[in-house]
Design goal:
Distance between the termini: 43 Å
Number of strands: 9
Radius of gyration: 18 Å
CATH topology: TIM Barrel
Structural class: alpha/beta
CATH superfamily: Metal-dependent hydrolases
Largest sheet: 6 strands, parallel
Number of helices: 11
Strand content: 5-15%
Helix content: 25-40%
Shape: globular
Number of domains: 1
CATH class: Alpha Beta
């Protein structure tokens, strides 16, 4: 199924980490995907992150008829008008700022608009979801949150532990995001979020991007679309439809070796023992294989009983509203 017609609510994905190619960019256009927040780093330090940005600049040059670098929602509007997909840069860890808060502004200048305070481990800013003890947001974490608020860089707690996530929601002067996770009450894994976190997130105006990555779904790769939309309906009852988006966590065409990098980085010799099984990418569910399938999600939501307007909000309208404020500078 193809995507939405031109003029409908924008289709925005809050998280992807694909092995980028012209074919994937063409699939974005076939799916009428207006904007994607792309992961440019996990454990990379500052210099390595800059190298990823260099790589992306070459992609923009080579495929400028399909994609465009974005820094604001105005760039989404311009991308839609030119039939291209706006690309925002995101970091899934704070490794890129090393131990220097000044690098937050440099990365913002380079186009980074979203940063997780932690990946799965303890960082200098907070605690990851696989640590045994969650000590919350650190002193440096509080300073970095204030700096991100000032610049207009969105705080992401997708891979963070419970206390750290709740503290980030409370400390931040702006609403935060959990760009790619699902309710733990629906599928209990360390990455998914408790009702307490979800209610606190929504109460402060935050956003949850629902993950379509099989390890985050009930029944994994065999998760049915009806099972997923039933969860979305229950979540809407809990936190309201205005706080729900899609953060597919699509890792299309990535080799399995990338899973090792995501899980292990450089911090272990023996491999991370976090109960996730073999380090391979599981198959996507049949109803969401790639960017052409956002229309399937929309159809499933409407079949579940969501209105066309509500489905449009979930598919991207809510992200558009959230980014409008979240990317705006000047609030400490």
């Amino acid at each position: 199924m193809t995507g939405l017609k031109a003029g409908a609510s924008p289709v925005i994905d809050g998280c992807q980490y694909c092995n980028w190619s012209r074919r994937i960019f063409e699939e974005m256009r076939a799916g009428s995907v207006d904007a994607v927040s792309v992961t440019i780093g996990y454990h990379e330090d500052f210099r390595e992150t800059v190298e990823r940005i260099v790589d992306w600049n070459r992609l923009f040059e080579a495929h400028g008829d399909l994609i465009v670098k974005a820094r604001s929602v105005a760039d989404i509007d311009a991308a839609r008008q030119s039939n291209r997909t706006a690309i925002f840069f995101a970091l899934q860890n704070c490794s890129a700022i090393e131990d220097d808060i000044g690098l937050v502004e440099i990365l913002h200048d380079l186009g980074v608009r979203v940063m997780q305070l932690t990946y799965n481990n303890q960082s200098l800013l907070g605690t990851g979801c696989y640590e045994a003890v969650d000590s919350g947001i650190t002193r440096m974490g509080r300073e970095v949150i204030a700096e991100m608020n000032r610049l207009g860089m969105i705080i992401d707690m997708s891979h963070s532990a419970e206390r750290s996530t709740l503290e980030a929601i409370d400390i931040s002067a702006r609403p935060i995001a959990i760009t790619h996770a699902n309710p733990a009450a629906w599928h209990k894994v360390a990455r998914n979020k408790s009702p307490e976190v979800l209610k606190a997130l929504a109460a402060r105006g935050g956003m949850l991007g629902l993950s379509l990555y099989p390890l985050h779904l009930k029944d994994g790769s065999n998760c049915a679309l009806e099972t997923f939309t039933e969860m979305v309906a229950g979540l809407a009852d809990l936190i309201g439809v205005d706080h729900i988006g899609i953060g597919s966590d699509l890792c299309q065409d990535q080799p399995d070796s990338v899973v090792e990098w995501m899980r292990n980085g450089r911090w272990t010799k023996g491999g991370a023992s976090i109960g996730l099984g073999k380090a391979v990418f599981p198959p996507q569910p049949a109803w969401f294989r790639d960017n052409r399938d956002f229309g399937n999600v929309r159809a499933g939501l409407i079949a579940r009983g969501f209105t066309a307007e509500e489905a449009g909000k979930i598919l991207g309208g809510n992200w558009y509203r959230f980014f409008t404020d979240g990317f705006a500078p000047g609030r400490a």
